[in-house]
Inverse folding.
């Protein structure tokens, strides 16, 4: 059986097709997120998959979305980075993928499923995954199972407060982790320092030894470490996994982050902080598996 999955983010959409038996990735495509509404987003996904050559062989379809998702009802309750509110996304996809079972989930929950099935979370009993891109999402594994939140809508660590009364977040509050730790923050810093236009430019410049980039990165890692340490103090995870585009940053990020988190946590032990094995593909892979 072939499964299709899509991960819809604020700036980009990643989608792919899996062979259910072998877990082989048969096809992958990434496109910019249409800014003209959710129906155009759904049609763009349908058209891309139809052009893949596998469209007629798909027997299951999963969609992952950044934001608060009611998976049972198939509704995106709120997604600030996409401008969604009470959007019946599962029903729209079900109409476009006639007779194919469709599931809907939060992007971080999807990433956890991918990492638990074929990644860094295999066999863990207590773990946290943070997806860092346009925003900051996250999910939790407790007692070996995905924690779906007390009301079934998952968890939103990106909207925990990092600084009271701080920077404006896309959710309307001030001082959220997302406002300080999303890759968007690095992109803004890169533009101000005339280093480039996105987070990659900061990492590349820091690797070349450019002082301005190194200072930006050090400040960013300090904020991200504070966020991770707060979560670690609450949950005491065996492992913290970082997914999303920033997970490809390598030792330039993970070495200093590991050291800073160890300094900021109450229990002075070395927390295992690692990139998602499935990297920036974890969201669509998990959506397909769900």
């Amino acid at each position: 059986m072939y499964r299709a999955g899509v991960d819809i983010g604020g700036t980009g959409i990643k989608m792919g097709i899996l062979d259910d038996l072998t877990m082989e990735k048969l096809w992958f495509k990434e496109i910019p997120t249409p800014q003209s509404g959710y129906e155009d987003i759904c049609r763009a996904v349908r058209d891309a998959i139809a052009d893949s050559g596998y469209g007629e062989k798909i027997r299951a379809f999963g969609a992952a979305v950044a934001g608060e998702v009611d998976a049972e009802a198939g509704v995106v309750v709120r997604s600030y980075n996409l401008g969604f509110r009470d959007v019946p996304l599962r029903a729209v996809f079900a109409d476009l993928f006639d007779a194919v079972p469709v599931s809907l989930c939060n992007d971080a929950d999807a990433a956890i499923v991918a990492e638990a099935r074929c990644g860094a979370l295999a066999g863990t009993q207590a773990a946290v995954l943070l997806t860092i891109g346009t925003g900051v999402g996250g999910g939790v594994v407790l007692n070996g199972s995905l924690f779906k939140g007390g009301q079934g809508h998952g968890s939103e660590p990106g909207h925990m407060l990092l600084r009271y009364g701080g920077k404006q977040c896309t959710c309307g509050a001030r001082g959220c982790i997302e406002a300080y730790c999303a890759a968007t923050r690095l992109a803004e810093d890169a533009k101000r320092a005339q280093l480039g236009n996105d987070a990659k430019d900061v990492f590349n410049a820091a690797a070349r030894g450019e002082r301005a980039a190194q200072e930006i990165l050090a400040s960013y890692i300090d904020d991200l470490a504070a966020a991770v340490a707060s979560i670690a103090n609450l949950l005491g995870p065996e492992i913290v996994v970082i997914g999303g585009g920033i997970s490809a940053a390598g030792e330039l990020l993970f070495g200093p982050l590991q050291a800073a988190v160890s300094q900021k946590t109450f229990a002075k032990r070395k927390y295992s902080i690692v990139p998602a094995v499935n990297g920036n593909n974890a969201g669509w892979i998990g959506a397909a598996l769900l």
Observations:
- The radius of gyration is 18 Å.
- The chain is about 35% helix and 25% strand.
- The first strand starts at residue 2 and ends at 8.
- The chain has a mean pLDDT of 93.
